Amino acid sequence: MTTTDKPSILTETRDGVFIITINRPEVRNATDFYAARELTRALARLDSDPEVAVGIVTGAGGHFSSGKDLKAAVAKSPLPTDGETEFVPPTRVEVRKPLIAAVEGHALGGGFDLVLACDLLVAAEDAVFTCSEVSRGLVASEGGAARLPLRVPYGVAAELLLTGTPISGIRAAEIGLANRVTPSGGALEGALSLAQEIRRNSPRAVLATKQALRAATLKIEGEVFDVHDEIFAPVLAGPDGEEGARAFLERRAPQWPSSW
Fold it and tell me: Where do the TM regions start and end (predicted)?
């Protein structure tokens, strides 16, 4: 984001709940470098603000996030000149307070990874969740491959990750991924209601309980990310991702440079 652009991430505090909104509806809230960096900063603000108890991540304009901004990636947009070119990706930020994903519309690729980085999920019944990376010559390196098998049965995770088949909010609840399902347009209000159920409890007890819940998976996630980073590095550095992105932008079937 440049100084003349609209904010790519909006934040709002409502009754002790910190709402983070991805604000790039013109690209279904796909995130470029700047949006990802601002999202990481917003998550840090959530944890440092003593006036808020719970965070919600959502998207503007009827969609959650379509993941990585492939147009920006293909164009190889220049990095900022302010010196802040390195940051922890938002999907790998360890958030101390409970975090809820409120999903309308599409949560695709990296957007689905972001959902999995949250503790809880409230989904509109017609929301669409897709681990779409393999269809773009990419891999679910920011949490999809690491976290999805911890949230749903292995076979379900394998099908979603290997086929890129989309599922609805209703199906997400059936497989145990979504905590609550709302009518279309109601995900944020549903998430706010869930946040207030959490907020009325003891802060010390809630924070300790989240820490305990995460303790069971943090070690696993850390080790898995290390292994996955090594496995996925040749894929991310290879030509398939660029071909997948170009094919998507040109609305054609990809011609994969790699072979079986």
Answer: none
Number of domain units in the chain: 1
CB proximity list for 67: less than 8 A, separation 6 or greater: 30, 31, 108, 109, 110, 111, 112, 113, 132, 133
Using alpha carbons, list the distances in angstroms from residue 126 to 66, 105, 170: 15, 7, 7
**Full residue range of the structural domain in which residue 160 is found:** 9-204
CA 82 to centroid of chain Cα atoms: 26
Mean pLDDT of the region 65-93: 79
DSSP 8-class letter at 13:
E
pLDDT in tens, 212-225: 999 878 778 878 88
Residue 59, strand partner residues = 22
Quote the pLDDT of residue 6.
Answer: 86
Pairing of strands 120-124, 99-103: parallel
Q: How confident is the model at residue 78 (pLDDT cuts 50, 70, 90)?
A: low
Residue 209 lies in a domain: no
If phi > 0 it is left, if psi is from -120 to 50 it is alpha, else beta; for residue 134 that is alpha
End-to-end Cα separation, the chain, in angstroms: 39
Answer whether residue 222 is part of any domain.
Answer: no
For residue 250 the two structure tokens come to 């040109």
